Amino acid sequence: MPSFDEVLKEAGEFGRFQKRVFFLLSQTGITFSSLFASVVFLGRAPDSFWCRIPGAAGLSERCGWTLEEERNFTVLPLQLGNESVSGECERLDVTWDPSVSCSSPLARYGNGSAGTLPLAPCHGNWVYEQPHSSIVSQYDLVCGNAWMLDLSQAILNLGFLAGAFILGYAADRYGRILIYLLSCLGVGICGIIVAFSPNFTVFLIFRFLQGIFGKGTWMTCYVIVTEIVGSDQRIVGIVIQIFFTLGIIILPGIAYLIPTWQGIQLAISLPNFLFLLYYWVVPESPRWLLTRKKGEKALKIMHNIAKHNGKFLSPHYSEITISNEEVSNPSFLHLVRTPQMRRNTLILMYAWFTSALIYQGLVMRLGIVGGNLYLDFFISGVVELPAALLIIVTIDRVGRRLPFAMSNIVASIACLITAFLPEDIPWLKTTVAMLGRLSITIAFEVVYLVNSELYPTTLRNFGVSLCSSLCDLGGIIAPFLLFRLAAIWLELPLIIFSILAAVCGLLVLLLPETKGISLPETVEDVEQLPSHFGKCGKRRKHRDTNSYI
């Protein structure tokens, strides 16, 4: 009986069929990255707002004031009395009733008395020039409520975290394509509800759910792509990251053309419904079917792949070798039960956490302060494009482990140098910091590929989901770590980033090299992977089959 890899080689390891599936599933990267970064535009700070004095709305209607006139009567007297008060979070502690004069509403308090009037904090009486431009103005996430905007992004990351566990397990139990399609449906429905949320609580609940389903679409499509190609073609796991970057580049254009946050939310959510059409063109992963003892279905899919690739399978292929190992209820214990699996899991968890923490930390630190938000965000996305190209050029020549380690080491050195460069040469400081951003992006993209190659088919989706969940934890911690340490010393976060990246660079050298090695089917296969430099890339025969692994 032939092994799966032998049948795949005869059917075509990356033919027309795989290229079509790859292109279709890669579009998920665009929608997922748009969801991931959407808070930048959904939560734009309003250009102008102020606190309305009680009774001002009725008086404004009676007097026929424009918003500008109402603001002049409300804010200017406040600022004349105290130049440090903006009128956004505080107001004069007065009430305007119908007896107030339209021409001089503060006349009753005497000339020049505005500066001596007591102030009161604003509670829900804000006026915005563009009331529906962002969730900030929609749900009054300003002044004392500003922390709720950070909460909205934390909730999304918590959704990603929950999705990694829940849907990662489900994809290994019930199938890749089923969970992918259900996740796409969930992202679309939750996205619509988010756009029309009547209050902030509903917004948070369905943003959390959208995070769960969003993680399901991204992780599952990634696993499907890597499981239907040959070992020499798994570079597609890196190429698919380019579509994630394309989403980052496209997002500011969408936000520029659509003036309201509801429109932006719908624009990044509705395309997920189109992915439901993949039911008719994207098959279940044949590798997964084999682990579920569904060899006939897997063989039928392989015949279909061969047909689309212009090839024919041998008529003697009536059955494909299936794994003798089946994990019906994968858990964390399955990932740490054996020495090699345990080492891989712990190192990959740390690598995910570190990559996400440093990546988001550097983005926020270099971030975009002032200037043109749309243009600056676009440029920040373009910076990531060379990362995938550099990986594509090097990873099949020198392997996975060395670029993985070197990208972390370079990021560490760049962060350290940036921390001690003087402020009077900003161009050099920015350039070195950008090198750190590029390097950690490379590390971030390599970990996706390496993670999927170091787990057996029975645990692959669960292993990738579990390890990548540390990415979401890093994303939650990053802003708190950055801003709290920066309050002590502005460059202190860079020192911490440097240490974390250096440790990661050394640890990943302990991982097996997977260049040119077929995806492991069982835990035993993982335990047999070469872990020393002298054995990198060596192929060994499986004792139960004649396939090379």
Q: Uncertain segments of ≥5 residues (pLDDT<50)?
A: 532-549
Number of DSSP E strands = 4
Q: Indicate the overall shape.
A: elongated
CATH class of the largest domain: Mainly Alpha
Which fold name fills CATH's third level, the topology of the largest domain? Growth Hormone, Chain: A
**Share of helix, binned:** 55-70%
Task: Write a short abstract of this structure.
With 549 residues, the chain is mainly α. It is built from 23 helices and four strands.
Structure description:
The chain starts with a helix and ends in a 22-residue tail after the last helix. It folds into 2 domains: 1-53 and 145-315, Growth Hormone, Chain: A (Up-down Bundle); 330-529, MFS general substrate transporter like domains (Growth Hormone, Chain: A, Up-down Bundle), CATH 1.20.1250. By secondary structure, the chain is an all-alpha fold. Helix 10 packs antiparallel against helix 18 (385-398). The chain is elongated. Helix content is 63%, strand content 2%.
How does the SSE layout of this entry go?
Blueprint: H1 4-11, H2 16-37, H3 39-42, E1 49-51, H4 56-63, H5 67-81, E2 90-92, E3 119-121, E4 126-128, H6 135-138, H7 147-174, H8 176-195, H9 200-227, H10 236-257, H11 261-269, H12 271-274, H13 286-291, H14 295-308, H15 332-336, H16 339-366, H17 373-382, H18 385-398, H19 401-420, H20 426-453, H21 460-488, H22 492-507, H23 523-527
Antiparallel strand pairs: 1-4, 2-3
Helix pairs in contact: 1-14, 2-9, 2-10, 7-8, 7-9, 7-21, 8-9, 8-11, 10-17, 10-18, 16-20, 16-21, 16-22, 18-20, 19-20, 19-22, 20-21
